[in-house]
Write a structure and sequence with these properties.
Elements (H helix, E strand, L loop, with lengths): L1 H15 L4 H29 L5 H23 L4 H18 L7 H6 L3 H12 L6 H16 L14 H16 L2 H6 L1 H8 L3 H26 L1 H27 L7 H18 L4 H9 L2 H32 L1 H22 L8 H8 L9
Length: 373
């Protein structure tokens, strides 16, 4: 997290004080490196420091604040210049740089690297001075040692047979999250509203508000209904609302109900972002932080993060071309991907609510019995 902010801070400053397009490119590149690290490190860190009964809500809280950041950027970006907006972007980076000196290292990471005294001190600090941590500490040690005994510490260890299921779930969720069109819809929301004949200022401001509301709802429901239920409801909702957006463009292209179609597109996009924010937006990152053991978490995190951002780039790059090909067809394709996501979650994604990380990882990846005794 420290390294990521050392990328992001100069990145925002390079954009704010850019002299030409090269400065903008360098700034975006630095921010890209930083955000790539943060999107993986933050949910993993939060999952590793929180108790099992609160882990989902805490990880969802980080996603909620990310959504609030997006929403704030949408609202503020309508009234200030992009240079001033870039300066605002540097403020949280500086705050986090200072704040990182006051938080402990992940106890599970310390246990993996054999730093016993620091491990117990960090865990005790996180749980409270008067809390008995002996059972939790023992569970962490046992599972960490079991995975370490069967791992040679290489990146290719991730592709052992016992991790196949975790890889399919982690990579599959990231693929489907992005191929459902989220990046294109968020980055090109103004273009979509213009194409639909709806006010871009009203549209983008409404999207900002709905993003925050959906993130709060996800936070409240995460540890109540579980990950699987929210994922299926969220994916089903995005499928239906994208069909509504696609239908509005189909009617517009054929000259039907022209007075109604802008509002259909607006309602569909609002509904899509609400459904997306409740589940499929943040839960894949929650599950990714839970299902991979420490022995392969670095390589696994790199793989799923690379998958997510590569697909995000692909969607961002191709979205305008798809709209030019067929606006209605674009949204119907994305709706189909969201429908596939419902089936994927139903058949393959495990429920992780209410379990410790060690219980989740031991169940997903087979560990020889003698290694955990």
């Amino acid at each position: 997290m420290l390294l990521s902010e050392l990328f992001c801070t100069p990145g925002w400053l390079a954009i704010a004080f850019a002299k030409d397009a090269w400065w903008l490119d360098i700034g975006r590149l630095l921010i890209g490196f930083g955000i790539g690290l943060l999107t993986y490190a933050v949910p993993v860190y939060v999952a590793e420091i929180t108790p099992k009964n609160l882990r989902g809500r805490f990880t969802a809280a980080s996603q909620m604040l990310t959504s609030c950041g997006f929403a704030l950027s949408y609202c503020v970006g309508n009234i200030i210049s992009w240079r001033t907006l870039a300066l605002f972007g540097a403020i949280p980076c500086v705050v986090q740089l200072a704040g990182l000196f006051f938080i402990p290292e992940s106890p599970r990471w310390l246990a993996k690297h054999g730093r016993e005294k620091e491990f117990e001190s960090a865990l005790q600090r996180l749980r409270g001075k008067n809390v008995d941590i002996s059972v939790e500490a023992m569970d962490i040690r046992v599972i960490t040692e079991a995975f370490e005994n069967d791992s040679k510490g290489r990146a290719l260890d991730l592709f052992q047979r016992r991790y196949y299921y975790s890889i399919i779930v982690g990579v599959g969720l990231m693929l489907l999250q992005q191929l459902g069109g989220n990046s294109g819809l968020v980055y090109y929301s103004s273009t979509i509203f213009t194409e639909a004949g709806f006010s871009t200022i009203i549209g983008t401001t409404s999207l900002a508000i709905i993003l925050m509301v959906a993130a709060v709802v996800s936070l409240l429901l995460m540890d109540v209904f579980g990950r699987r239920t929210l994922l299926m409801v969220s994916s089903g909702g995005t499928c239906l609302f994208l069909c509504l957006v696609g239908l509005s463009f189909y009617l517009k292209e054929h000259g039907y109900l022209e007075e109604v179609t802008p509002f259909m597109a607006f309602a569909g996009l609002l509904g899509y972002l609400a459904a997306f924010g409740v589940g499929i937006s943040g839960i894949p990152w929650v599950i990714m932080s839970e299902i991979f053991p420490l022995s392969v978490k670095a390589s696994a995190g790199s793989l799923v993060t690379l998958t997510n951002w590569s697909c995000s780039w692909l969607m961002s790059y191709t979205f305008n071309f798809m709209l030019e090909w067929s606006s209605a067809g674009t949204f119907f394709i994305f709706a189909g991907v969201c429908g596939v996501t419902v089936l994927f979650v139903w058949k393959l994604v495990p429920e992780t609510k209410g379990r410790t990380l060690e219980e989740i990882q031991a169940k997903i990846a087979y560990i020889p019995q003698q290694d955990i005794q």
